[in-house]
Description:
Layout: H1 8-16, H2 25-29, H3 38-49, E1 56-60, H4 66-75, E2 78-83, H5 86-98, E3 105-109, E4 120-126, H6 135-143, E5 146-159, H7 183-192, E6 195-202, H8 204-220, H9 227-230, H10 234-246, E7 250-259
Parallel strand pairs: 1-2, 1-4, 2-3, 4-5
Antiparallel strand pairs: 5-7, 6-7
Helix pairs in contact: 3-4, 6-7, 8-10
Amino acid sequence: MTYDESGIIDAIERLARTDVAALTQDQLDGVDQFHAGGPEAVDRLVPALRLGPGTTLLDVGSGFGGPARQIARATGCDVVGVDITAAYVEAARELTAHAGLDARVRFHHTRLSGLPLTGFDAAVTLHVQMNVADKRAFYADIAARLRPGARLAVHEVCRAGDARPPLPLPWSLDGSDSFLATPDELRRDIAAAGFDLVEWTDDTSWAADWFSALGRRLSAAPAPLTLPALLADGPTRMLNYAIALTDGTLTLHRGTFTAS
């Protein structure tokens, strides 16, 4: 299993050498977002979601909860996150409580099909569908939980062609749980699941530049608290991902859709 890390909060505090409650937002930004681009990637999605106070967001594959908390702070909306990894949900809940957002940001340990809530005003997926074989069914499950006209924003990894990226990767240690689609295939599957396309943008160059800038920052001032430090073989997984984006094996696409 790729996502089998446990004791996330203990690991964060051990690396930071302080309690989670004492961490700054900048420190948390470097560790609580399990996707390329970090909080900057979330900022690129927020305007398309059209959220505000009194609206609700569904975060599918919510991980440690960084994007959910960031969007709640930025827009005033309420967020429900779902994730299949129990340790990630436990960490997300604790980090959210420390942030004082647990009244507006909640997390469920469940597959999306097990979530009984519907009528959301928007949904978001960031680096999720690479582990999903049946992407059309996955996004149809999301569509079923949104009101008509609701927005879906995605920030997702695709394969550029037939070449395979080096392993391990952030979402797959051995390739057995990696199901990469081309950008055209992913866009068509989302549309076929009940969504109308609003925008589809290639963010590959932007993500490659983000990785380069991150590498320069860490070389100049190494930080003990980073996402790779929390993951099994984390540095290698992140390096392989960055290389595959740079050499054209992988692409990163940002999309906006409306529920039909």
